[in-house]
Amino acid sequence: MLAGLMTSYDRWAQFADEWDAACKKPPGLAYFKLSQALSLRDEFSPSKGWTEDLRNERVAELVAIARRHALCGFSVSLNETIYNEFVTNFTPFGELRDPYFLCFYQLVDAVTSARENQPTAEDLDYIFDEQGDVGKLAGAWWDQLHIVAQWRTTRPLGSRPVHRNDKKFRPLQAADLFAGLVRNEVEQGERMTPFVREFLRGFKGMDYYERVYARDDLLDIGADLVVRGVRRKQERRRDGRG
User: Fold this and answer.
1) Residue ranges of the domains in the chain?
2) pLDDT for the residue numbered 150
């Protein structure tokens, strides 16, 4: 699953100031990670003065800040086990052996589509956490994605993805918050903890572009890849390449 937030440069600057101020409120956070907040550890450790009630209050405040400044949110999700069964095992294309390539491609497509409905003509910048594998792969995939996309859209895709330290770059912390809440909902469904669901409700009303690959979708992709693979082998034999 990939998810994130989009807004203008000016809004991100305003956001960063408010987020930083909220994080500095006692007991204080050097940085924010949702996983630490939900489990009351590390930056949210009780030894630093954090309680469940104080945690809930602070996360709700951070959700409100992110919601106030974000123009829209995105998520692309699929079942990795099903993907590997129907797609990875049959694709002749190296990039598609990694489910995150499909998620990344769909995320870029969703972002460029949504941009047309937003009151900004600024360039698109994709910023990933430098600690995550996806951000590193996204840079490597960028040229291939341009080749694929040119047959499907004339919209500018934006700039090549870059990486930032999520402990220092506040917008990535907001993206972690949003993505973590969406992932929790996808994975937990009706079993989602009530207070976590309440955090997610804080984003209600924000434009949200969601793409979900169900089992049948992945089966269709796998079937198409089998056909493409057969054609490629036939072409190679015809060209005398084995």
Assistant:
1) 2-227
2) 61
Global pTM reads 0.88
The conformation of residue 85, written as its DSSP 8-state character, comes to: I
Q: Coil, helix or strand for 66? A: helix
User: Which amino acid, residue 239?
Assistant: D
In contact, 73 and 209? CB cutoff 8 Å: yes
pLDDT in tens, 23-42: 999 999 999 999 999 999 99
Strands across the sheet containing 72-78:
2-6, 72-78, 207-213
Which is more confidently placed, 19 or 143?
19
How many angstroms separate the CA atoms of 105 and 59, rounded? 30
Alpha carbons 105 and 238: distance in angstroms, whole number: 32
Side-chain-facing half-sphere of 47: CA atoms under 13 Å: 3
Rounded CA gap, 35 and 41, in Å? 9
Residue 122 DSSP code = P
**Token pair in block for residue 206:** 């924000």
- Asked whether residue 242 carries a pLDDT value surpassing 60, the answer given is no
CA angle 128, 129, 130 (to 5 degrees): 110
